[in-house]
Amino acid sequence: MKRIFLTSTALALGFAATAATAKAPAAKEVLDTYADIAQAKYEDSLITAKALQAAVEALIANPTEQTLQAARDAWLASRNPYQQTEVYRFGNAIVDDWEGKVNAWPLDEGLIDYVDASYGGPTDENAYAALNVVANAKFSLGGADIDATTITPALLEETLQEADGIEANVATGYHAIEFLLWGQDLHGTNAGAGERPATDYAADATCTNGNCDRRGQYLKAATDLLVSDLEWMTAQWSEGGEARATLMADEAAGLTAILTGMGSLSYGEQAGERMRLGLMLNDPEEEHDCFSDNTHNSHYYDGKGIQNVYLGHYTRVDGTVVSGPALTDLVAAKDAGLDTEMKTRLNETMAALGALKSAADNGFAYDQMLERGNAKGEALIMGGVNGLVTQTKSIERVVSALGLDTLEIEGSDSLDNPGAVFE
Length: 423
Known about the structure:
By secondary structure, this protein is mainly alpha-helical. It has 15 helices and six strands. It has helices at 14-19, 27-61, 65-83, 93-103, 153-160, 174-182, 212-237, 242-248, 251-281, 295-311, 327-334, 336-361, 366-369, 375-401, 413-416, and strands spanning 3-7, 138-141, 144-147, 313-315, 321-323, 406-410.
């Protein structure tokens, strides 16, 4: 992924003087709020993942359309708090190094389970694109013979995830689970999500598509691993955790981490790789939640995560609120007009993402928005893209106002060099 670099000239007064002004909170207070919200978001992600784990166990024990739908509903619920954590990527190395285990996409789903004939087979880019671990208890991988008689979390994490160094070999995390709950979405740019039947998990003669017991093993292993991964990350943001300690060790670096996460998620990641790129290619395979048709919610809650970090205000899944001194207070003390601008830009972005979400919730699926020539869909998606790009410019101004020297933000060819997308 291409990077852009946004730099500013440090103000002569410096950040330390800014933090000491009468109306500004101390930088430590702002970092404390940021860490407290991170801990709350990961705790909420863990709570909802445990609910998903219970629903998956119920599905495997008694595979009916009702238990399958309950597991799908639990997966959808788990996405909302998790997507709000993505703003902690990029600026926090501990999160960015870990995130691929739980939220990597897009994936070559044929690595995991059966796929439609139109999917194809192995490719020059990925010899394991159609490995189908569910159907094969033994296989060769990277020149080694693998015994997958029992599908375990260790097999997924240590052997299959990014097998042979290929990022599309996603064997763990939300999207592997999503595929196992929905199956492929074969509707193209028409309405409709994946339609995997509950009988794919049947333990008797009603089993469809074979290997139902192993499919259940994979689903359980992936869900158990997701829970353990979220337990680990929650601990990193708790008192004494590595992520919190690293953030608090250097106040200026901590503030830079916050703004790097906001800017990179706004610009290259969400506006570029997740939204503009898919629209340019008119490709539903570029949807973030492509099997479940939940992409509109993923986009919305990514944006929400950026906003609640700036404002220092997060509403938990149980309705309680975590809040405190935040960037908005620092910026307001330095430049009240800029704080108003930043909040306005965030509100405009959330209005655009909210319009996209509302349209999808009311029957205009994100798949349909991506169809070539669909002017309404393009307008909805580009509304979000433009809002995210514009708010990134305000983030750059915040960096300058706080006297932080350099900010490195993720870029995307879809925004920076569109011609390269089609090369």
